[in-house]
## 1
Amino acid sequence: MHIRDLGYITHTYLLGVIRRKAYFLNRLHTSCRPVELRTGKSINWTQKHQQMIAGKQNISEMLISLGKGNETIECRLIAVPVPLQVWEERIRKANIQAKRQGYTLTEEYKSRARFSLFITNVENDKLQTEMVAELYRLRWQIELMFKSWKSLFGIHKVRAVKKARLECQLLARLLRIVVNWKIYRFIDSIDEQRFKDQSFSMWKVFKYLRTIAESIRKMVTKEINVLQWYNSYIIPIIKSLLLEPKKGKKAAFQILNEIFRA
């Protein structure tokens, strides 16, 4: 399954995913004009919003088509109404952008902005409607990973040096990231039974490992064994490395468990 940021979604990309018999899950781009398969007409977003309010629906799904002719894509569209304050903030930002570029927002855009819209070609029996938005949230985990690479490992900080030296520095940093990732997975798996309903924060673990780099070197060179290292450096602070639960939001590992272990 391919889950991409909206800025990297094109019609050609979606066609490529389908032709390779793979799956996609993305937000619907504002330039797309979906047609509902049931009616053969474009979606009336104002009407859709009113219908969902009247029916007290917090999520809606329909089959749609995108494009024309041989390049038509048929997929599921999942619409999730956003809170009023989120909608107002979207319109505020869009108005600023529109004024800067010399155009005005259409009523269709304003009505459409009341929803978070997701498209996917995954069958309903494999990915239920209620889990689509939750699964899309996992894309943020990729962003967090790259953030840790930059903020904690400084992988983007380079000096004007010869090519061979730059390659050596880059490979060394990537190797350090891999080692830290292996340790993170080790910690997460070894204490899975101990903390059944919790998981470890990748950011917290990586940040802590950076402060005990010397101990990791000793473990890698076998001056101390893994168990000694774990007992000395992880056990004393292990609870501080756990993810902090967010009110009303599920952690990434909980989403994965619900979708793939159901």
## 2
Amino acid sequence: MAQIDKLKEVLEVALLTSSQPLSIEDLTKLFIGKTDRSTIRMLLDEIKNDWQEKSMSLVQVASGYRFQAKADFTEFLMRLSPDRAPNYSRAVMEVLAIIAYRQPVTRADIEKIRGVSLNSNTLRQLIEREWIDIIGQKEVPGRPSLYATTKHFLNDFALKSLSELPELNSSLTQELSDSKVDENREEIQEN
């Protein structure tokens, strides 16, 4: 029993001190002896339960596991860093939503869905933030770039996968499905 407690402590320390999420693979490197993945998963579940009533929680995101402050403490933590997180314009967030829900998409697809031309700074901001990336080109004349979200996007929005994105309301769903962007999914050619 003491050995299990020690393993849990090592996992907690690694997760609490890491600046990025840690995968199961990363966590197995902590131990010299053979500690299997199922044991680590079991210990992570125990740690998650242990922290349930505390100020932080253990969450799983696309890149692995991390501790994060519970939402109740956000306003207090914001006071520590007067440098505000960047406020993104509505246009930037609309483009991010289109890419997240309809990926892979081209710039033309985004413009068609939004009904307005796209400012090149919008895509640049999202690429610099590492929320989207170019994943290939569409096999049509001009070979436009195809955009998709990244693991960094999933991590920042505390998602394990795109399937955890919230449901769209019916008018947005219709608007996105009318855009016929699905054809891009078959036409990706890797860089």
